[in-house]
Amino acid sequence: MSATLTKGPSAPAPRTGSANPFVAITQNLRESGIYIAFVVVVLLFAVLTDGLSLSPTNVTNIILQYSYVLVLAIGMVIVIIAGHIDLSVGSVVALTGAVSAKLVIGSGQPWWVGILAALGVGLAIGVWQGFWVAFIGIPAFIVTLAGMLLFRGLTFYVLDNVSLSPFPSQYGGVATGFLNGLFGGYGYDAFTLFIAAFAVVGFAFSQIRTRIAKVRYQQVVDAMPLFIGKIVAVAVVVMAIAWQLAHSRGLPIVLIILAVLVLVYSTVMKSSVFGRQVYAIGGNLAAAQLSGVNVRRVNFWIFVNMGFLAAVAGVIFSSRSNGAQPSAGNSFELDAIAAAFIGGAAVTGGVGKIQGAIIGGLLVGVISNGMQLLGVDSSLQQVIKGLVLLLAVAFDVYNKRRGGVR
Description:
Elements: E1 15-16, H1 21-27, H2 29-48, H3 56-81, H4 89-106, H5 111-136, H6 140-159, H7 169-176, E2 178-179, H8 190-216, E3 220-221, H9 224-246, E4 251-252, H10 253-271, H11 273-283, H12 285-290, H13 295-321, H14 332-342, H15 354-373, H16 378-402
Parallel strand pairs: 1-3
Antiparallel strand pairs: 2-4
């Protein structure tokens, strides 16, 4: 009796997008469009300003000037993914900065006491608003609109309608300090380049691991030329920015804080149960409830987190401005919301990424900075930023209709 050997099924080939990188980018325009737009805008202003926008000093100033907006954008995109909105973050920035200034400047407490107090106030505000949204069931729009008025009034009360300044140098170093010369003098800061190179290697390793996992589970992956092109593009941009920073004042401390936040929250939203539940709630609330997601608990922690990040932004802003003002934080909530939507978040929830919100915030920052360098009138700047936001949301609506979603 002879045995018949049968050949087992071969491993399936990875499912890739189009082999043509241009077609692949077109097919994934919603995800890739913001990165393309960012590069185009950067190059446009570099040409219009004769390279001034890419000078080491200006690149450093952009990072310092818009860092607190980027921190707010991280929290705001999570709120928007879950199908909510938060209109109070600008007032929370003002109140947390005011509390810190009252303790450090007004009462002579150590600088770190002011930071801890600001973070504690932010967490308490998050608990307050999360309670009303998650457990009482009041829409987040109403709760945070009330919070915008409430916390602004408390800011006036804490500061007694006057500004407080200056902070100690240690406090100011949070937003204006730099790490420079740690590897010795070379005419530039080698430490900044080392950190940037380390980040690029980490990004490439992460992308390769993600691709291998998708291939293993027979998920769609980008064509290899596009995959390599994305990594190379990110490496070029990161190293170009690092080169400019290295020839200015070195690595900003606030950039390290921002990088840690981006890494942590990207991991949480991508790989944790909490992150998947946030996407599930925003994508289909009824299905999330039927699948056993504790919607109240998730919504509660979303707003606690937003309060914490608003406090971080409040510390950064008060540190940069070297004081606290009753009017601090005006329209910050609009900047954060714009960053999230321009970065690809959907108005209906369920869609969005931390990286997209950061790029969206940087895009708004580059546009604002470029117009300032060109001497564009401030009223026209507001008009242009408003049009950019409108077009970003219109693009989202267009994509949904083209995909059959009404």
